[in-house]
DNA sequence: GCGACAG
DNA sequence: ATCTTGTCGC
């Protein structure tokens, strides 16, 4: 797919904040999805050479049957450190490289990290979504900001995630008895719909299949194929 | 000033 | 994220 860059990536944190504040004004948290969703994608990031090289893997699955239809991997020098609140500046460049290689344009992208559940309402899912102009959902494994009420242990239960008196996402139990995930709108999607897709893309494990498949193909890079068991 | 802090 | 085996528990 074709990607239109919106800004430079070699930035100071001050410049990064300015970009977050500017682009956050473009985030849409209403449903602006295609009438019928055919493809959902997941991204996985990894680092090599002691963090000097970033690796992004994308998996595109059919929806709702969740079968892998395309994958891609991209590598590039890591140009930004990991700083809570600025994850997108470290990971998005390589993700864009991987997305650019795709033949299929995903209808929704599930990201590893927060959407609007962010100090400036502009987590990695928002940043990626605004740049590629595709609906995105943030599905994080841990909390960045916000508080919530106790969550029931049953799969499918959720509680709103509140930050500064506002609902910025939800804590969602994707598997009974397992640690919950944090779901928030990235771009062009509402919270209820984001929760819905996050759950529909999650079958047997805590994380969405999209993310898990991307992780699987990334780890299998350059290795001799092994018979599954 | 003192903690908290996605991956 | 990454370094890493076996082990505790449902």
What is the topology?
Layout (H helix, E strand, L loop, with lengths): L12 H11 L15 E10 L4 E10 L5 E10 L9 H14 L7 E5 L11 H9 L3 E5 L17 E6 L2 E7 L8 E7 L3 H10 L8 H11 L10
Parallel strand pairs: 1-4, 4-5
Antiparallel strand pairs: 1-2, 2-3, 5-8, 6-7, 7-8
This protein binds 2 DNA strands through strand 1 and helix 2.
Cofactor: Mg(2+)
InterPro entries: Endonuclease-V (IPR007581)
Pfam family, one: Endonuclease_5
Protein traits:
metal-binding; 229 residues; 8 strands; alpha+beta; hydrolase; archaeoglobus fulgidus dsm 4304 fold; cytoplasm; DNA repair; DNA-binding; Endonuclease V; 5 helices; eight-stranded mixed beta sheet
Your description of this structure?
It is found in: Cytoplasm. Its main location: cytoplasm. It holds the Pfam family Endonuclease_5. It comes from Dulcicalothrix desertica PCC 7102. The record marks 82 as: Interaction with target DNA. With 229 residues, the chain is of the alpha+beta class. The protein has a domain at 14-136 and 185-190 and 203-219: archaeoglobus fulgidus dsm 4304 superfamily (archaeoglobus fulgidus dsm 4304 fold), CATH 3.30.2170.10. 24% of the residues lie in helices and 26% in strands. It has helices at residues 13-23, 87-100, 124-132, 191-200, 209-219, and strands at 39-48, 53-62, 68-77, 108-112, 136-140, 158-163, 166-172, 181-187. It has an 8-stranded mixed β-sheet, sandwiched between helices. β2 (53-62) and β3 (68-77) form a beta hairpin. α2 runs parallel beside α3 (124-132). The longest helix is centred in the middle third of the chain and has 14 residues, at 87-100. The chain is globular, with a radius of gyration of 17 Å. The mean pLDDT is 95. It binds 2 DNA strands through β1 and α2.
């Amino acid at each position: 797919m074709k990607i239109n860059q919106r800004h430079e990536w070699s930035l100071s944190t001050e410049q990064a904040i300015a970009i977050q504040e500017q682009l956050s004004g473009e985030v849409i948290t209403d449903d602006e999805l295609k009438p019928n969703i055919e493809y959902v994608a997941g991204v996985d990031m990894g680092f090599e050479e002691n963090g000097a090289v970033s690796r992004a893997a994308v998996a595109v699955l059919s929806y709702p049957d969740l079968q892998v239809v395309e994958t891609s991997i991209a590598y590039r020098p890591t140009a930004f450190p990991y700083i809570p609140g600025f994850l997108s500046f470290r990971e998005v460049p390589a993700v864009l490289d991987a997305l650019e290689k795709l033949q299929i344009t995903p209808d929704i992208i599930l990201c590893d990290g927060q959407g609007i559940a962010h100090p400036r309402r502009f987590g990695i899912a928002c940043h990626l979504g605004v740049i590629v102009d595709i609906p995105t959902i943030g599905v994080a494994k841990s909390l960045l900001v916000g508080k919530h009420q106790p969550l029931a242990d049953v799969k499918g239960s959720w509680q709103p995630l509140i930050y500064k008196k506002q609902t910025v996402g939800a804590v969602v139990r994707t598997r009974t008895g397992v640690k919950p995930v944090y779901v928030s709108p990235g771009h062009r999607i509402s919270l209820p719909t984001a929760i819905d897709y996050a759950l529909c893309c999650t079958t047997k494990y805590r994380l969405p299949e999209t993310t898990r498949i991307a992780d699987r193909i990334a780890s299998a890079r350059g290795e001799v194929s092994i018979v599954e068991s």
